[in-house]
UniProtKB/TrEMBL annotation:
Domain PurM-like C-terminal residues, every copy: 199-348
Name of the gene: hypE
Protein name (Swiss-Prot/TrEMBL): Hydrogenase expression/formation protein HypE
NCBIfam families per the UniProt record, alphabetical: hypE
Residue intervals of the PurM-like N-terminal domain: 75-186
CDD domains: HypE (cd02197)
SUPFAM superfamilies, alphabetized: PurM C-terminal domain-like (SSF56042), PurM N-terminal domain-like (SSF55326)
InterPro entries assigned: HypE, PurM-like_C_dom, PurM-like_C_sf, PurM-like_N, PurM-like_N_sf
Family statement drawn from the similarity comment of this UniProt entry: Belongs to the HypE family.
Species, as recorded: Streptomyces hebeiensis
Length: 372
């Protein structure tokens, strides 16, 4: 027997769903949506970019590797080699499905690493690329992925200089996994770090939020939300350079991928010891994304993006940076969404449309696994 229950979505709208009676009335059938944090094994949330990911890095990996470069804990590490400042980053891509509206795992493998370098003010120069293939995957599929990766690299102006291929047994992979690492030259005079965010800084996002996560989910689950939502995957290096042309003193940049904008803002607030105050009505969430999130009970602030950035800019240069961003194809939808404040250090709050405020915290795990 099934019975109907009401749920409340993130935008306050009510929806009704049908579920087996046992899942509503039998407490023994309930499950916790997030894993407990005092566990002994790896859980999916450890890869989601939220609190579990941060704990894994800080309490397991960082002590094991322990060095000053790793301690930066940014999207990429900035190092000096032979008197030249370089940014260096690596990332792995396990998205499912491999192809989705607006992109593929091949696009992500290039753009994700290029963007991590760009968040340090670097222009990407070279990438490495390693494929881990599952036995039985069709070579035509691998070829499509490789072709999309090559096209994305050419579009981003970066050279895939070296690579590797491994094959794992059937059932021990998911078709294709990719790892890319990248190096790039950091622009002279630039010092972009999360610690540099300061009270008074204007917080700017480069365009609509949540498109990538919803695009991947729509294909994975076979859902339609009143119109196709396409991934925003794109290389942001040229946009960052346009911003630096008018404001070499951009304080902090981050591309809000896993964990979405909320996680990126919390990481910067914590690193700089500042508070962040957002205007919720200013957040650029497309109607299709908002509708999908309302239907699924998700908050768009936690949904992944793959072609957007958030910038912390001195107030005197905010208008110039906004103008430069809006003149660039990848920043046409740029908008100021809030400011850095001295109050509530380490905490992000949003002023709602009704005049109240809510705390925008870091998720424990992840809302949407395997989206990048």
């Amino acid at each position: 027997m099934a019975e109907t229950t009401a749920i409340r979505t993130v935008d306050g709208a009510a929806a009704r769903v049908r579920a087996p009676a046992a899942t509503i009335t039998d407490a023994a059938s309930w499950t916790c949506p997030a894993p407990l944090r005092d566990h002994r094994t790896v859980v999916m949330g450890h890869g989601g970019g939220g609190q579990l990911s941060a704990e894994l890095v800080r309490h397991l990996f960082a002590p094991a590797y322990g060095n000053d470069v790793l301690a930066q804990l940014g999207d990429s590490a900035t190092v000096t080699l032979g008197g030249t400042r370089l940014a260096f980053s690596t990332d792995s891509y396990v998205v499912r499905p491999l192809f989705f509206p607006g992109g593929s795992i091949g696009d992500l493998a290039v753009n994700g690493t290029v963007n991590d370098l760009a968040m340090a003010g670097a222009t990407a120069a070279f990438l490495s690329c390693a494929f881990i293939l599952e036995e039985g995957v069709e070579l035509a599929t691998v070829g499509r992925v490789a072709a999309s990766l090559g096209a994305a690299a050419r579009a981003a102006g970066v050279v895939v200089a070296t690579g590797d291929t491994k094959v794992v047994d059937t059932g021990h992979g998911d078709g294709v996994f990719i790892n890319t690492a990248g190096i790039g030259l950091v622009r002279d005079g630039v010092d972009i770090r999360p610690e540099r965010a300061a009270p008074g800084d204007v917080v700017i996002v480069s365009g609509p939020l949540g498109e990538h996560g919803v695009a991947v989910l729509s294909v994975r689950e076979g859902l339609e939300f009143g119109g196709e939502v396409r991934s925003d995957t794109a290389p942001l290096g040229s946009l960052v350079q346009a911003m630096l042309d008018v404001c070499p003193d951009v304080h902090a940049l981050r591309d809000p991928t896993r964990g979405g904008l909320a996680t990126s803002l919390n990481e910067i607030a914590s690193a700089a010891g500042v508070g962040i105050s957002l205007q919720e009505r200013s957040l650029p969430v497309p109607d299709a994304v908002a509708g999908a999130c309302a239907f699924l009970g998700l908050d768009p602030l936690y949904v992944a993006n793959e072609g957007k950035l958030v910038a912390f800019v001195p107030p005197a240069r905010a208008d110039a940076v906004l103008a430069a961003m809006r003149a660039h194809p990848l920043g046409a939808g740029a908008v100021a969404i809030g400011t850095c404040v001295a109050e509530h250090p380490g905490t992000v709050v949003a002023r709602t449309g009704l005049g109240g405020t809510r705390v925008v915290d870091v998720p424990v795990g992840e809302q949407l696994p395997r989206i990048c």
